[in-house]
Design goal:
The chain has about 230 residues and is an alpha+beta fold. It is about 45% helix and about 25% strand. A four-stranded antiparallel β-sheet has the order 2-6-4-5. It has a three-stranded antiparallel β-sheet with strand order 1-7-3. Strands 8-10-9 form a three-stranded antiparallel β-sheet.
Length: about 230
């Protein structure tokens, strides 16, 4: 009988058969990701992959001197999935949005493990499908939906990965994430606050009414949730 496996606390890793999970975790190290850390830049060679456990990471595309968040990676996934396609260059900027722990593995080691674990390949194939779906959903959301609904969606996505109704955030950072002016975020946040869906002050945002916030969000949040449930669960 195999000895008990280390606690993965990452759903991609936890879904692996015990032997595969043990083998993979034995080649990882636990690290603490700090808020604001940049883990990779577009075009840079990826030296590590990350499986967040208590942290989460924003995926950002720079454009015309500004930037737009196009995805989030929490304990449901990993950073570095492009390596499974044989591409070592990072496609996006990865910025730590929520500080906390993660499993880290050298990119070369990950590529070797991928060749010897069909279960890992299958899990990452499904995760890659989900990521592509979410990127497409975000593109449509940014183009067609109002800032208030997009803000509600983003707060719910952050809550799901932070596993908490309260987190640190500033208006400037929200504007950066949503690709709009600060005034637009301030107006949208004020509307959600007046409806008693959120409380915001001194950089701390608290979700007061999760169901109400889901009703205020665009349909993209429900579509995201359905995609995760259908493909990864």
């Amino acid at each position: 009988m195999l000895p008990p496996s280390p606690v993965a606390k990452n759903r991609l890793l936890a879904a692996l058969p015990c032997r595969d999970r043990q083998h993979l975790l034995a080649r990882c190290e636990q690290v603490e990701l700090r808020l604001g850390d940049v883990l990779c830049q577009p075009g840079e060679r990826m030296r590590h992959v990350f499986f967040p456990t208590d942290s989460f990471i924003s995926l950002i595309t720079p454009i015309n001197g500004s930037a737009l968040e196009v995805g989030l990676v929490g304990d449901e996934g990993m950073l570095g999935v492009s390596l499974m396609l044989g591409v070592s260059a990072a496609p996006l900027r990865a910025l730590v949005q929520g500080a906390g722990a993660a499993w880290r593995m050298e990119a070369a080691t990950f590529c070797r493990e991928l060749k010897h674990s069909p279960a890992l390949q299958r899990g990452l194939n499904r995760y890659l499908y989900v990521m592509l779906s979410l990127l497409a959903q975000t593109a449509a959301c940014t183009r067609f939906h109002l800032v208030e609904a997009r803000l509600a969606r983003w707060l719910l996505m952050t809550r799901d990965r932070a596993h908490a109704d309260e987190f640190q955030i500033t208006h400037e950072f929200l504007a950066y994430m949503l690709g709009v002016r600060r005034a637009g975020v301030t107006q949208a946040a004020s509307s959600l606050r007046k409806r008693k869906l959120i409380r915001y002050g001194r950089g701390t945002l608290t979700i007061l009414d999760g169901r109400g916030l889901e009703a205020a969000a665009c349909g993209c949040y429900a579509a995201d949730t359905e995609t995760f449930a259908r493909v990864l669960n």
